[in-house]
Amino acid sequence: MILTTRLEEDNKIVQKSLKAYKIKSIGEPLYKIKYLSKTLYAEENKIFIVASKQAVKIIQSKINLKNLRNSIFFVIGKQAANKLKKNGLKVQLVSKNSKDLISKIKKYKK
After folding, report:
1. pTM of this prediction?
2. pLDDT tens-digit readout, 29-76
3. Which of 6, 44, 51, 76 is placed for a possible disulfide with 11 were both Cys, Cβ 3.0 to 4.6 Å?
4. Chain CA centroid to CA 53, Å
5. Alpha-carbon distance 17 to 38, whole Å?
6. Contacts of 39 by beta carbon, 8 Å cutoff, 6+ apart
């Protein structure tokens, strides 16, 4: 038995791949995200650390996107970084995981 935690959309992709190999799998929700507020306020030189696909979804909302043009983003994951760049946002650091991001932040003294 292997336990993984993924977003629902990602889980469906994994289950489909496993089914192709005739491997049985079960997908069950472990948690639910509830947003206290979806409004982000940007300032000059504000730095956002983006560590999840959920964060990218909020940032991509049209209301918030306009407010974030002058902000800088440190991102975990190439896919998330590419999505932000496609929306015209300034991605300054991209890392493969949180430990790598901390090392890069220290190196560049951000």
Report:
1. 0.64
2. 776 767 677 666 656 668 889 998 878 888 887 666 777 888 889 999
3. 6
4. 3
5. 33
6. 63, 64
